[in-house]
Amino acid sequence: MGTTPNYAIPYPEPTDFVTDGATAMESIAEKVDDILSTGAAARNLLYNGAIQVCQRSTSAVTSITSSGYFTADRWNSFINTLGTWTQTPDTDVPSGQGFRRSFKMTCTTADASPAAGDFIGINQKMEGQDLQAIRKGTASAQPLTVSFWVKSNKSGTYICELFDADNNRSISRAYVINATGTWEYKTVTFTADTTGVLDNDSNLSMEINWWLAAGSTFTSGTLATSWASLNNANRAVGQVNLASDVNNYWQMTGIQMTIGSVATPFQFKSYQQELAECQRYYWKWVSKNNGDLYVSVYQPASTPFYYLIPMPVTMRARPNSASLSGSVSYVNTPAYPSVYDRGDSWLILVSTVNSGVSAANQSVWYSVSGSTTLIQDAELS
């Protein structure tokens, strides 16, 4: 026999009154349905929560001083002149939870007194069409619960924030790291917002931000624990300064955001599924064997030839950028190939045969083992 997943079923709210047994059973059934409808396939609204996919680098990236994606897919570092950092896909994980990798930020140049506008944090950016089940901006808007494992050598108060980019609204929640050097499980719940409908498209609608340090521009007010128009002073009030000392670190894994006020067990996905989801935003091909990428064409001299490469998945949008780099071996001395055009499901390379080559000859080029990469980038910005 198979096994049935365990789901946490919330008790009714204090205002949920019923008058008879049938109504009570209907109320319970609806709540069970709400939990199950977020089901195994769509429960986690975030991508790569187990840090399985690291297309950019599976090794530490050092000397980070500005915003960007460096290692784990979908996880962006937002930084403004606040220390220097190393980002590592680390094998240190909470014991017995099924995770094999965490995402770690380590301070390598400290800043004990951040300027007013300084900040550092980690976030994930989300498309509006992925968030319609939240029903934000309607009378039936839903709360969201974020759960994650976190570890740091610096205890104290940290801030997790949701930012509605479509309507310029935000809400923040504090969580506390109690013990240094210890994995701790945290959950934070964000109340429903009946103001501000999210766009139903593939553009940025919402960010979830984990602040690690911030200057007074973001900490001088009162923490925005209810949805409100964005006020920078209220976004990260109480946040500790992780940049205060060299070798301070913060890491997390098992990151999940679900609809409702109850944290559910982490949704483990296959690597294949996780990779495909991440490739919607960023695709990187690295040659592994001589001849991995091979073109042989019958081409008149000096006439460009074009090579169409299909993407393994349809990307979020036409890529912001595409690139080919590395070492290419060839015969008949064609020009080094370059990116000619790009789309959400294809990439076209172009090269030109040397003018001294006759039309009867073939132009051939191929990648050299392990040294050539193709990249398409359609990350949200």
| Count of alpha/pi helices | 2
Mean pLDDT across all amino acids = 86
User: What Rg is obtained from the alpha carbons, in whole angstroms?
Assistant: 25 Å
Task: State the order of secondary-structure elements, H for helix, E for strand.
Answer: HEEEEEEEEEEEHEEEEEEEEE
Structural class: mainly beta
| Global outline | globular
What would CATH call the architecture of the largest domain?
Answer: Sandwich
Question: Would you mind describing this structure in some detail?
Answer:
There is one protein chain. The protein is mainly beta and 381 residues long. It has three domains: 1-37, no CATH class; 42-278, Galactose-binding domain-like (Jelly Rolls), CATH 2.60.120.260; 282-377, no CATH class. It has two helices and 20 strands. The chain has helices at residues 21-37, 271-279; strands at 61-68, 76-90, 102-109, 119-127, 144-152, 156-164, 169-177, 184-190, 204-214, 228-229, 249-259, 282-286, 294-298, 304-310, 321-325, 328-331, 338-342, 346-352, 362-367, 373-377. Strands 1, 2, 3, 4, 5, 6, 7, 8, 9, 10 and 11 form an eleven-stranded antiparallel beta sheet that branches. Strands 12-20-15 form a three-stranded antiparallel beta sheet, with no helix packed on it. A three-stranded antiparallel beta sheet has the order 13-19-16, with no helix packed on it. Strand 17 and strand 18 (346-352) form a beta hairpin. The longest helix has 17 residues, at 21-37.
